[in-house]
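Lecture notes, unit on protein representations.

Consider one protein chain, 367 amino acids long.
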Amino acid sequence: MVRRSAEASTLFVLVTLIASCRPGTAQALSPQAPSPAPSTGAPVSSSPGGQAITALNAARLVRIASLDLPASFVNTVTFSPDGRSLVTGDRYGEVLVWERGTWSRRPYQMPLTTRQAADSARVPFYGVLALSPDGRTVVTGGGPEGEVGVRDWEGRARFTLSYGVPIFATAISPDGRFLAVGGMRGNIVVHDLATGQRVADLRCDREYVSVLVFSPDGNTLVAGYERPGNLMKAWSTTTWQEAFTFNQMTERIDYHDAVFTPDGRQLVIGRIPADIEFVDMGTKQVVRRLRGHTRAPYQLALSPDGSLLASAADDGTVRLWDARSGNAVRVIDTGDHELYSVAFSPDGTLLAFSVSGEGVQVWAVAR
């Protein structure tokens, strides 16, 4: 249901004042300044001459920044569409915006819960932070009641909705029109992102929706269900009718993430136990498996041109794969840490990923 935005806006002001006092640093911090609204122009580069990360230069990746958040559980990292900001969200609801280059930060949302409360409510690692394609709308969520807040870039509330139970997945359509929300229940609710009006309630005889992803053309919404057995179901976004279903394994598995290749022809799935699978969307068959992680990959990211796949995993590594050949071209080992999220910058020159108990690392190709 849609709730009054005035109360949420007032809460945000209080939250920002409180959150600005919380500890946490980044390398080369500078005095805080408001972040500009995302532009609609071409993505910026990290620095003059910054190189896009490729299979040929991945061996030259070096860490350029460490965003220190030792008490956090960062489960989402994403760049604004113009590439000027990195946005991080954690399991407890805190959202921070980091200015690219200086890596100074501004609080966007204060934690919604504590670690003890999250553990008691069995709030999982799944991230529920999303940015609209133009970067002007931010969707956050969390908590045992599945509260979802929709705000503009400056933090002004647009609307709030409640899913009713913990949320495991959110997705925004490529045209920025639809917001899909799923979680512990089997149904997926779809809202108009501009008005907050519910446009669809997609129901299934399965539950535990852990993956939601729109196809690049926006015509299909794919959902991953985990109980009582794994299943992928696709819905038409024009009729909101079921389009097709498939599952690539007979035994029950946990879906962690899924991303479409830029042409929409394949869906890349990260799952338990530890494989990454490419599914042909025409035949619904697995056409490639990437093996190398010793424990489950939590999140996947494709480089802007689709040539590289990054996977952040429970085994403490980020692996970069040549998306065409399937060969691993770089392994970044952080030691005995879980890695929950990973993202490329829009210009492809930066790779960011979260490290359990530490914060976020940002990497770039050495000159």
